[in-house]
Specification:
CATH class of one domain: Mainly Beta
Number of strands: 15
Radius of gyration: 24 Å
Low-confidence stretches: 1-5, 17-27, 151-168
Largest sheet: 8 strands, antiparallel, barrel
Shape: rod-shaped
Strand content: over 45%
Number of helices: 1
Distance between the termini: 32 Å
Helix content: under 10%
CATH topology of one domain: Porin
Length: 255
């Protein structure tokens, strides 16, 4: 399959996966916690002259509370523990070419499933497809990643008269990632006796995530990418090793 067709197919798959997952996410809500223990989620409205708090809840009701009744006003706090999914797509940039003067451009598409233990530590297992101009790999790898900073999404009602008193919104959050495993070589071979063999895979770098709902973020990252491979000649004794060293530039989503 020509490289451009493989890229088009991969991009369409990426779009379908991310769109389906994003639709399933819960929209970020404002949260009002009352001193009597009630918790209401919805959309805060501009504060009234008497500093009362007004919220339209998800079921379409509107509630008005005096300042004395309200304990805190904030937003839904993203979970710090639980299942997490990463979907990433991007080019693997390089200048080198093959002996046949074919530029070894590549595109990578990875899906990672795992568990988020805290904001700073997520561990999971991933797979996907890495499409080079001359070879195709299916990596199987472990992934470790996490936020490098983060803060509370809940604050007290401290500034009366504001449209959303004491409310803070999450901004861009830097994160790290480290992946390592083995890339299965799935290159189509039409030469009898010629074998394409996979090798070690690793990737590491930094990125920024942009939260857009309670537990979802858009991702941009960059880093180092290495895929090793071996080509065994028809004589069965001669082997040629190749290291695909790349600068990975990826975009994606986490849910």
């Amino acid at each position: 399959m020509p490289f451009v067709y493989r890229f088009t197919y991969l991009f369409a798959l990426f779009s379908c996966v991310t769109l389906s997952a994003s639709i399933a996410q819960t929209v970020v809500s404002d949260v009002v916690t009352l001193k009597n223990g009630w918790i209401l989620r919805g959309t805060l409205l501009p504060a009234r002259p008497d500093s009362s708090v007004v919220i339209d809840t998800r079921d379409g009701n509107r509630f008005v509370f005096s300042r004395a009744e309200v304990q805190t006003v904030g937003r839904d706090t993203p979970r710090t523990k639980g299942y997490g999914l990463y979907v990433e797509l991007g080019p693997l940039a390089a200048r080198n070419t093959t002996a046949q003067a074919v530029t070894t451009a590549a595109i990578t598409f990875h899906i990672i499933n795992g568990f988020r233990f805290s904001r700073g530590f997520y561990a999971g297992f991933g797979t996907g497809v890495d499409l080079y101009a001359t070879q195709t790999f299916v990596p199987l790898f472990a992934s470790v990643r996490g936020d490098l900073s983060g803060g509370s999404r809940q604050s007290s009602l401290a500034r009366p008269g504001l449209a959303r008193p004491g409310l803070t919104r999450p901004g861009p959050i830097p994160f790290y990632f480290l992946d390592g495993g083995y890339g299965l070589n799935a290159t189509v071979n039409n030469t009898p006796g010629l074998r394409y063999i996979g090798g070690a895979y690793t990737s590491a770098g930094l990125g920024i995530r942009f939260p857009f709902s309670r537990n979802s973020s858009f991702l941009l990252s960059g880093g180092y990418y290495l895929q090793q491979s071996i080509i065994e000649q028809p004589d069965g004794r001669t082997r040629e090793s190749a290291d695909f060293n790349r600068v990975a530039i990826r975009a994606g989503f986490t849910f």
